[in-house]
Amino acid sequence: MSKSIKRKKVSDISADESLGPDxxxxxxxxxxxxxVIIPQDPSLTSIxxxxxxxxxxxxxxxxxxxxxxxxxxxxxxxxxxxxxxxYSLLKKQGILLEEAIEFDSFIPGLKWLSIGLLxxxxxxxxxxxxxxxxxxxxxxxxxxxFWPLGNISYKSMKKCKNFSQSLPS
Length: 169
Description:
- 36% of the residues lie in helices and 20% in strands.
- By secondary structure, the protein is α+β, with helices and mostly antiparallel strands.
- A 3-stranded antiparallel sheet has the order 1-4-5, with no helix packed on it.
- A hairpin with a 3-residue loop joins strand 2 and strand 3.
- Helix 2 crosses helix 3.
- It starts with 15 loop residues before the first strand and ends with a helix.
- The mean pLDDT is 81.
């Protein structure tokens, strides 16, 4: 079963909203970083979001209520992730944190291509130590791969141009 990410803009949050149960994680994100809280038992967890009159948003994770008898203890375990949206780092967590990265926002359906290019750029980075140089190398490789197709296209355009010029007016 694939879980989906539910994003809310600050303007879309009403005074108090709840999602859940079965919330794997919740928190805040921007384009490059995220801060999330991860419950140990998602099936018993829901998330509450609220916004005050100053547009200050708060996110709270709620677990089930339990009564603790005298002289006994109980604990709720949560983990925190505060850091960059690094695909391989988020994927290692095993709870779909990597879904917070929006790969297909430009061209929907090409997420597989975006992830492949990201992995290849990181591979190149290991050898050149500079993302700018890695991007230049990737660009050159893509140009080399598509060069034969470009030549075929240019030849075809030239034939069409010559054909249209040879037609009587």
